[in-house]
User: Fold these one by one.
Assistant:
Number 1:
Amino acid sequence: MTAPGTAAAARHEFDADAADERARADLYGLLAALFHEPPAPALLASLQAATTDAALDGAFLASGWRTLVEAARRVDGDAIADEYAALFLGLGKPEVFLYGSFHIAGTLNQKPLVDLRDDLRRLGLERPEHVEVTEDHVASLCEVMRVLIGDGTGAADLAAQQRFFDAHLRGWVDRLFEAIVEHPRADFYRAVAAFAKDFFAVEAQAFDLLAAGS
């Protein structure tokens, strides 16, 4: 795994360069994986080996990325799995809900999920059968963004990305990330949430600039 120093989001602008778009997609994919479940050994090892060198100095995401990598090196896999369960699973009501409907409507499986499913159908996307979480789980939404960006080899539809981001992520993810950061049981996931908050802030700013220039 490479550090996000070349990502278009880290430069506060979107760039047609394929490497930059792949970097954006990779960051969404990383967040999708980390919020879906505790990192598998291979993913954790990749994070532990990621660079945090001076090439990132001055980049908005540099500090959060460095903190995330350091947390991956400091907290072992079993402790991360226990933390994930304590924060996001639990018996009955979890400590922190990862679902957009809860943060928007105050409870699960409400109108925000219905609206999301309508948009996903329009985009030709559907939840895979093996995925148990509903589509408004933050991991699922990050995965949709990764798919919309693509692999950087074609012309990404930035307007479609912006519509989806604004409709289904922008209005509530900050509350989620802040709840994780402030939770006393959070350690590794405090670093994940802090980095995610920075990344989403840059994405939001970039989409705003895109809208202003259109």
Number 2:
Amino acid sequence: MLYWLMKWVVIGPLLKTLWPTKVVGAENIPETGGAILAGNHLAVADSFFMPLRVKRKVTFPAKSEYFTEPGFKGLLKKWFFTGVGQFPIDRSGGNAAQAALDTAIRLVEDGHLLGIYPEGTRSPDGRLYKGKTGVARIALESHGVVVPVAMIGTDKVNPIGSKMWWPRRLEVRFGKPLDFSRYDGLAGDRFIERSITDEIMYALMELSGQEYVDIYAAKAKELLAAEAAGVKPRVPEQPSGRAADRVPETKAG
């Protein structure tokens, strides 16, 4: 109930008024059944503007800190994120990471729309980065299609490090659904999961027009921070196949 109240009464009308948005390909979203909306991630604003243009409810994983912050402010955050249908995700790895993936799989199996960001965090410079394989694992185990979603212009609305939102015209592009049923039974095969993830990221690259960089966005942030500090950066690590490397992005990473 709170989700629809926020979308249609409290927040939605204001966002639609101040940020006119062109929507392309909305017909590619399945009208029923579970599906994964896999998007590029330019700003915190992505998680507001994309669901606003989808008729069905979209559920995002949200970082666990939103649910565990102490005090009155923490209670308000927990109430808000729980009320709008978000679920906590612990990105520290191990069993917590696997539990988050299991929750995402169950949501899609139960017929919901799951919104995730395969890059694992916001792009530090507007480019598209290597996807984590959690999106592939969810698709394989839930048998849900993947709809690529490209957000255009949200990095200008809500730049990294800025608490202000600036009026801009936006565009949301929904690509053709990607069906990976040809890989049924191969969940857990890291080569198959990497291949699927790369296919999704290629679709996002074409849809968004972003330059693609074949390292994780988190590693890119480390390299940029090291460069700014005058420290010689480490060579980017190769994927290890651990559960933490598969964890999809939180709502505001």
Number 3:
Amino acid sequence: MVIRRSTKAVTHESSYRYRRVSDIPRLVAWRRQLLEAHARLRLAFAAAQDAARDGADVSDASRDLLLYCHGFCVALDGHHRGEDAMLFPALVSQYPEASRVVRMLRQDHDMISTVLTRFDIAVKSAESPTILAQHLEGFAAIMESHFRFEERELEPLLDQLELHAELKDVFGPL
């Protein structure tokens, strides 16, 4: 058997009719992609917080927040849906001991969805920038706690995870 190495894959040539490819960089990329998705969500959230802080006029602040937060909320929702539908089942399948952590992360996703809905109602109701900023501060704490827990608990597993899927399907439209 001859083994050819490249930066993209390790290809095993044997007597089999088709080559077998072990996509080593793809396996490691799941951890990196999770961290990058969280970084992009943090940046989008910071833009929403800036819009709340900078809005002197309630209608202007609400309009800016609708713009920033709609995009952020769609991205975060897509991120969580992808994790729930693809990443978490793959993790539990390959690492049954991760079931408790995955269950906790799914509970976080439900709680975050509820918080986002409440915030969306406050924005559409043209709450004052102060009230909107308070919503965002509370949400920031929840979101950051969730991201840190997820990163801490899943990073070691993601380096070895075998999941053949599109990034946008797993981590949302980021």
